[in-house]
Amino acid sequence: MTGQNMIGRSLLRDGTDISKSASSSGSRDIAPGARRLRFIGSIQPGLALSWFVMAVVVLWALFPQWFTGYSPTVGVARQQLRAPSAEHWLGTDALGRDLLARIIYGAGNSLSGAFVAVGVGLVVGTTLGIVAGSARGRIDGAIMRCVDVLLSIPQLLLSLSIVILLGFGILNAAIAVGVTSIASFARLARSEVVRVRASDYVEAAFGSGGTFSRVLLRHILPNSLTSVIAFAALQLGWAILTISTLGFLGYGAPPPTPEWGLLIAEGRNYIARAWWLTTVPGIVVILVVLSANRISQSFGKAKA
């Protein structure tokens, strides 16, 4: 009986193993199709549309000549304030310039300014936050007090003040917008560094003899910068909106340089006769800002 039981157990064990191996082989056969179905089902229309909008705008900025044959600065005589038509898809402005061409070429100025602004805030603010969160003590207190001062000033007012000091232009406007975002990046980076540094695996790394610089580079920074990168994507939309606001107020790119905020400002005097001069550039700005915000939200969900 003992031998029979042992044989029965071995057969049962073998049978279980065979069923498991069969099910696993079947799952391997079904896995590719299931993955494809799961991937198709996971595609979100809003996120896909956001990526499409950002891809088109980036192509506008890099290769504007692919999308229009009109000049963004030279108008055509006797074609002022033409309504949208087959010849001019989005109409013309008061000087006979094609509005679509000015929007397409304006993407380069608006996007480049936004990337510069985000880069300034990301590099300077993240560096300050990492230093504050790592050093602690008086250094942390001094840096965060400066951050609190920056946060207490309205961002648009601070941007206007910096632009007035530096001078008008898209680059100076971008730098001004970037300076106003330093405080937000610094506070977020510091909070992430403090959170990660208090983790058990970081304490274990220190306990096993790891130096501060080694633990910082291998453990703290890689686990702290994910939220900062997601926040940078969110700041891209805010930077585009702020730079457009400065351009609308006359502190951005000087005419006739195509820039989205400047296009809206130029068309406000003709809004009763040519509604497209302000409506279409405004819609473009809204779509780009919403797309950047939607993409940044997807980064945050992926981190979670």
Chain-wise SSE layout:
Blueprint: H1 2-42, H2 45-62, H3 99-135, H4 137-152, H5 155-166, H6 170-180, H7 182-197, H8 200-207, H9 212-249, H10 260-267, H11 276-303
Helix pairs in contact: 2-3, 2-11, 3-4, 3-6, 3-7, 3-9, 4-7, 5-6, 6-9, 7-9, 8-9, 9-10, 9-11, 10-11
Descriptive account of the structure:
The model is unreliable at 6-30 (pLDDT under 50). The chain has a domain at 48-68 and 88-193 and 225-303: Orthogonal Bundle (MetI-like fold), CATH 1.10.3720. The protein has eleven helices and no strands. The longest helix has 41 residues, at 2-42. The chain has 304 residues and is mainly alpha-helical. The radius of gyration is 28 Å and the shape is elongated. The chain has helices at residues 2-42, 45-62, 99-135, 137-152, 155-166, 170-180, 182-197, 200-207, 212-249, 260-267, 276-303. 77% of the residues lie in helices and 0% in strands.
Summary?
The protein is mainly alpha-helical and 304 residues long. It is built from 11 helices and no strands. Helix 2 packs across helix 11 (276-303), helix 3 packs antiparallel against helix 4 (137-152) and helix 7 (182-197) runs antiparallel to helix 9 (212-249).
